[in-house]
Write a structure and sequence with these properties.
391 residues, alpha/beta, Aspartate Aminotransferase, domain 1, Aspartate Aminotransferase, domain 2, 7-stranded mixed sheet, 4-stranded antiparallel sheet, 14 helices, 15 strands, 15% strand, globular
Amino acid sequence: MFDFDTVIDRRGTHSLKYDFAARRGMPDEILPLWVADMDFASPPAVLDALAQRIRHGVFGYSDAADGGYFNSLKKWYKKRFDWEIRPEWLVKTPGVVFAICAAIRGLTQPGDAVLIQQPVYYPFESVIKVNNRRLIVNQLILEDNRYRMNLEEMERQIIDEQVKLFILCSPHNPVGRVWSEKELTAVGRLCAKYGVYVVADEIHADFVYTGYRHKVFAAICPEFAQNCILCTAPTKTFNLAGLQISNIIIPNEKLRRIFKREIAKTGYSQPNLMGLLACQAAYEEGEAWLEELIKYLEGNLALVRKFLEEKLPKVHLVEPEGTYLIWMDFRALGLTDKELDELFVKKAGLWLDTGTMFGAGGVGFQRMNIACPRSLLQEALDRMEKAFCGL
C-alpha cells in the first residue's frame, strides 16, 4: 500500500545526512547510513496536512489551540502502550535532547553525578559534561550476543558517587534492546530506593519488532511515574526530525514546574507550527503506514542477517529487538577502530557511526541505519563485501 522502495534523492535539501559529508571529513559521494533519520517520505496524511497549511500561507506564532493535538497523543499512547495520559502532564519542546538538558539543569546542581548506561546515544555524555555535571558510566554487559543491565554495579555507583539522576534509554540506542517490564521495574525500584530521578528517553518506542513489546517506564507503577520525566516524540517514528517537536510527559506537578522553569530560562515558548500539524496528523492517521514500515524494516533486517551469515561470518549482528539501528560486532577481525573506520570510508565508501562514539563499550563495533530503500541497503552490503573480502 505504501511505497518504501523508491529512492528519494536527498542531496541538495540541507540534509545533515547527505549534504554535510565534506564538512565532517568524509568524501562527498559516500553512502551515508549513520545519523538516525530515515530515507523514506513521511506518511501521506502528514504531507497533506502540511500542504494544506502551506496553501493557507500564514505562519505566525502558533500553539495547539484546542484539544485535538493532545487527544491524538492520548489515543496513540492508550492504544499502543495501554497508558492513559492527562493534558496537564504534557510539555512540548523542540526536541528530546533539549528536554534532557532542561531536566539535568533543573533536577541537579553543577558537580552532581548523572548516570548513563553505555554504549548509549552519544549526546547523553556530551550534555552531562557541557552542563558541568559528573558523568558516571554503568556499562551494559554483553552475554550470549545480548545486552543486560548491570544493576549490582549500578547500585554501588549510586551509593558511592551519590548519583542524583539517571538517563534511561528505552528502547536502547544503539544496542537495540527493548527492556522488559521486569528489567525496568528493577531499575526503577533501585532509583526510587535512593532518590535518583529518572529521565526516560523513549523516542524509539514505536519501533519494536515481532515478539517484543515496549513498556512505558512511567506506566509501570505510580511511584515510577512520580519520579520520572518521560521524553517522547513522533520525529523518529514518522521521519519528522527537522520539524522539531517532542512531547515531554511529567505526571509529578513539582517536577513539571521545575522543568517548565528551565524551559522558560531558554526563552523558548511556542512550538514549531509545522511540527504541531505533522505530529497530530501522524498520530491520527499514520498507524497503518507505521505498521507497514515495521514489516519493511524487518525485511531489511533479514537481508542484513543473511548477508553477514553468508558473506562475513566473523561479523556478528547483535540481534535488535527494536529501533531501526543495528549494532554490529567486528572484533573478531582483529582490526583497530581506526583501521575499521578507514576500511568503511576509504574502501567501502560507507559512512556508519563508529562504536566508540557511544562509549568505551563500543570498541570494535559499528552502528548502521537500515531505514532506507532495500536497493540502497543492498548496495551498502555489496560495498561491504568487496571491502572486507579476504579479512
